[in-house]
Amino acid sequence: MLWSQIMAGYLTDLVVGDPRWLPHPIVGIGKAITCLEEKIRNFTKDALSEKLGGALLVMIVVGGSYLLTWGAIELAAWLHPLLGWLVGSLLIFTTLATKSLIQAAREVAVPLAKGDLPTARKYLGYIVGRDTDNLEEGEITRGVVETVAENIVDGIIAPLFYAFLGGAPLAMAYKAINTLDSMIAYKNERYFHFGFVAAKLDDLANYLPARLTGYLLFLAILMQGRDYQTAWAIKKRDAAKHPSPNGGIPESLVAGALGIRLGGHNSYHGKMTFRAYLGDSKHPLRFMHIEETISLMKLTSLLGVLTGILFSLFLGR
Questions:
Q1: C-alpha to C-alpha distance for 185 and 243, rounded to whole angstroms
Q2: Beta 271-278 vs 262-268: how paired, if at all?
Q3: How many domains does the chain have?
Q4: 227-283 residue pLDDT tens
């Protein structure tokens, strides 16, 4: 049954994470995007042709990811049903990022707790796009908390959501959308038009999962005995201030639950920008807030799996 594949993939992700020696489909998707972009840009000359070229790239990458995943599972199932189940489980596992998020966050938190700011800044630079060279403890913590909170959606709940709807093929198609967004959906001269469709599709694909994440995260906050009333109030007040129509939901809930303020000034390649504040600064940002965010993320992911299994059982899938 589909739910058993997803549970197996989820547990494998918790145990194995993202070993570097294992060939990863998302890496392949990224290479395909780079290669296809180069070829498609040979035919783009103006804003309209760039938007159409970007749309073509999205169709090829998302459709191809779905079909290749579906074909691999069907071929394996033709050889033996158990092999088909195993391949499906492994492919679902590759769409999840629970353990890799935990590892990335702790690579920053551990040296930060020891006062080793240079090492903490170095590892923060691996997971955020902002300049990290001169950040102090509070801003380093903010970078990690924002990253973990926002990635509860696209790294965990959204892949699970699409896996429960359509198995590994639909989960992989979602990850293709997410990868396109991370690679070409920039508001700069090169990608403003070319990445337009990818950006809008990513917003659309995350719309329902982000709101589901909001309810699951709220339940996790409640179950952990945190300030759920403030968390919900901050979400209602601040979530829409986030530049993403989806990212503000988990970030504002985490900010409210922990009594911290996210957002603020960030430097990108020496250029300072400002992102609206989320939450109230009841407590100064400290390294322990990273572990508290990880704890909320882990419980939310578990609630997401259990919710999906309950619905699957109800529907007889």
A1: 13
A2: antiparallel
A3: 1
A4: 999 999 999 999 999 999 999 999 999 999 999 999 999 998 888 999 999 999 999
Separation of alpha carbons 88 and 84, rounded Å: 6
Q: Is 91 in contact with 69 (CB distance < 8 Å)?
A: yes
Percent of the chain with pLDDT over 90: 91
Position 85, amino acid: W
Alpha helices in 43-127 (DSSP H): 47-79, 81-95, 98-113, 117-124
Q: In one letter, which amino acid is 81? A: P
DSSP strands (E only) in the chain: 262-268, 271-278
Each residue of 105-118: pLDDT tens digit?
999 999 999 999 99
- 168 vs 233: CA distance, rounded Å: 36
Dihedral sign (CA 260, 264, 265, 269)? positive
Closest CA to 139 of 239, 247, 250, 266: 266
Tokens of 263: 């957002």
Give the range of the structural domain holding residue 173, as residue numbers without chain letter: 2-315
